[in-house]
Amino acid sequence: MSIQSTEILETIKMVSDQNFDVRTITIGIDLHDCISSDIDQLNQNIFNKITTIGKDLVETAKILSAKYGVPIVNQRISVTPIAQIAAATKADSYVSIAQTLDRAAKAIGVSFIGGFSALVQKGMSPSDEVLIRSIPEAMKTTNIVCSSINIGSTRAGINMDAVKLAGETIKRTAEITPEGFGCAKIVVFCNAVEDNPFMAGAFHGSGEADAIINVGVSGPGVVKEALENSNATTLTEVAEVVKKTAFKITRVGELIGQEAAKMLNIPFGILDLSLAPTPAVGDSVARILEAMGLTVCGTHGTTSALALLNDAVKKGGMMASSSVGGLSGAFIPVSEDEGMIAAAESGILTLDKLEAMTAVCSVGLDMIAVPGDTPAHTISGIIADEAAIGMINSKTTAVRIIPVTDKGIGENVEFGGLLGYAPIMPVKEGSCEVFVNRGGRIPAPVQSMKN
To answer: How far is CA 416 from the centre of its chain?
Structure first.
């Protein structure tokens, strides 16, 4: 890949003035060859494989960051869903495996490790259920392990038994971790992808190689400044500005990914071009939408503006790389976006509006703080609603919701770092308890019959 001098100068400006970064280099690692019926042996095999394959990741990121002058914020590991790997042990808890993942990740110095996961869109095996029931204690006793549950897909429908258990799991995790923080490391998916480099939902899918490099880039501030400095008047012209800016961002990520793959001798998988915000001023997806002409994110017109942004980002990325994948688009995590926080605090950005926005953007209801007394069945209802959007629209949707113990509407919760802080948002009156407790499966929609 040849990089022109003008592109280098543009990249320097993106980094210095516009909060551009490579958000993560993530190594996906297949753990099937670690399987053992002895859980102690399994743990040892997992530790050995992760620390062997991932040992040079952090140093490689430092070298590339210094060489190209681009911050590489996180280095991460994703692994095969542990429910698949641990089944042979017949153990009644997988907490020790989560602790092994934590130790291995800390030993090589990465930021997070994902894959304490179960894929239960059509049904739950005994191992899947053990894993899900292990999540609360696993989140309590580890620091950097992330967990995910895929409860639905367009092809399978929505597993409402798993949705019910997921709601109860999140509620329990909130009760036993400080201010519910353990829930910030749990994502419930519909249509989960196998090559996502972003946490907390990353896992290494069964269709992947033994090890793979996936890169996630981010640049909301770059897009916002490009819009503010452009002469765009019509929305057609706005889309062109976003598309061209996404192209530049993707070029940098492609270079970093290819170089990392070469240095680590691991194949390059995908580049996830997601506009992932941070709490820093100037690094907000909400502010991009406002730069398009909204007075505040969440007002009428927000969903259509977000649809334009998400589509233009994907089009620009696809022109710059043949490896665009993951969840590419625009993320809307409330606590991680200062513009979203401000809009939520004002009462204009509500849970209902966020749900509507998830129909047109990447992922879904992300880093939403709700009152600590929110019932488990309400959480399950929120998950089911979001999964329905993903199932019907053949897209990935997800919920990362945090019931904050002993806090209510109007209060805030501080998570720190990239996770920021969040206002406690109200949930609906009324109850979906009877609906959720029916269990069974919401059948797959007619568009699943594509073959």
So the answer is: 17
pLDDT tens per residue, range 89-131: 999 999 999 999 999 999 999 999 999 999 999 999 999 999 9
Instruction: Count other Cβ atoms within 10 Å, centred on residue 162.
Output: 30
CA distance 320 to 317: 5
Reduced to 3 states (helix: H, G, I; strand: E, B; else coil), residue 69 is: coil
Residue found by looking up tokens 């233009």 in the block: 312
- Among 132, 139, 33, 9, residue whose Cα is nearest residue 88: 33
Contact 216, 198 (CB under 8 A): yes
Residues 130 and 127: their CA atoms lie apart, in Å, by: 5
293: left (phi over 0), alpha (psi -120 to 50) or beta: left
Q: Are 110 and 78 in contact (CB under 8 A)?
A: no
> String of b and e for 177-209 (b: at least 16 CB within 10 Å)?
bebbbbbbbbbbbbbbbbbbbbbbbbbbbeebe
- Residue 434 tokens read as 């009877």
Query: Which phi and psi (to 5°) does residue 180 adopt?
Result: 70, 15
Q: Give the C-alpha separation, 130 to 140, whole Å.
A: 16
**Token representation of residue 317:** 């990325």
Assess contact for 398 and 168: CB atoms under 8 A: no
Burial class for 421, CB neighbours closer than 10 Å (0-12, 13-18, 19+): middle
- Helix 302-320 and helix 235-264, axial crossing angle in degrees, nearest 10: 50
Q: What distance in Å separates the CA atoms of residue 204 and residue 81, rounded to the nearest whole number?
A: 7
pLDDT 10s digits, 395-424:
999 999 999 988 888 888 888 766 778 889
Each residue of 301-332: b (16+ CB within 10 Å) or e? Answer: ebbebbebbbbbbbbbbbebbebbbbbbbbbb
Pairing of strands 397-404, 112-119: unpaired
Residue type, 324: V
Are 442 and 386 in contact by the 8 Å Cβ rule? The answer is no
Pick from 291, 436, 315: which is nearest to 375 by CA?
436
Single out the residue of 95, 195, 110, 192 nearest to residue 144, CA to CA.
Answer: 110
Measured CA angle at 251 (ends 358, 288), to 5 deg: 40
- pTM for this prediction: 0.90
C-alpha distance across the termini of the chain, in Å: 38
